[in-house]
Amino acid sequence: MAHALGAPAAPAVLRNTELDAEAVRQARVDLAACFRMAARLGLHEGICNHFSFVVPGRDDLFLVNPYGWAFREITASRLLVCDFHGNVIAGDGVPEATAFYIHARLHLNKPRAKAAFHTHMPNATALAMLEGPPLVWAGQSALKFYGRTLVDEDYNGLALDEREGDRIAASIGDADIVFMKNHGVMVVGPSIAEAWDDLYYLERAAEVQRLAMATGRPLKPVPEAIARRTYEQMREGDRESARLHLESIKRILAREEPDFMH
């Protein structure tokens, strides 16, 4: 199912040492932690899914996982630095082809999307396979996403060219969470921590909705006014909660899988 990205037409040359900055090192560690915890929680699919983050201080470059490596194998140093033309600036290997065409065009066309996490995580993807709106505003965790989601109805097969990448980027609009019908989900955010927090709670919200739907009994949506107010309450502390969430998983991994930092 996965495809390696072909070699670019011409190699890129890095003319500065910005990739050695402490902020870049920290981004590598944070992103690697997300890969490892996503693997633990079953939010990945083989070698096919991908997380990316715009390199701090370099809006023309992004970090992404290399083709052929499972999430549980990712380390800080294994992540690639790529430009928007398909050149690998730093790291061994190449990105998976759809990772490049989706993430490069997304970061290029949506500067607010510093982090972009794409998965086929089972519960959220199951909802993306259904007719109609995927999330029902019936559970408290779902209300974190009230007014922040979008459904991309136009599944076109694998994203193996810039045109499809541009279409996906354009479809996102102002949303942070995109249910890609017949495919999976995309979560974008201004930081790695916020993208991770949304990805985690999106799958939890989808899981409890799926369990409730399996009873065969009707769901009881929250009234719109309360849903909106609850969303606003959640958003007040979301950034700090997300930061602490990421710090917690790094502490867990530092004890149990310390190689993720290398």
From TrEMBL:
Organism: Neoroseomonas alkaliterrae
Superkingdom of this protein's organism: Bacteria
InterPro entries, sorted: Aldolase-II_Adducin_sf, Aldolase_II/adducin_N, Aldolase_II/adducin_N_sf
UniProt GO MF annotations: actin filament binding
Domain Class II aldolase/adducin N-terminal residue range list: 29-210
Family recorded in the similarity comment: Belongs to the aldolase class II family.
PANTHER family named among the record's database cross-references: ADDUCIN (PTHR10672), PROTEIN HU-LI TAI SHAO (PTHR10672:SF3)
Any GO CC annotation of this UniProt entry: cytoskeleton
NCBIfam families xrefs: PRK06486.1
Protein name, per record: Ribulose-5-phosphate 4-epimerase/fuculose-1-phosphate aldolase
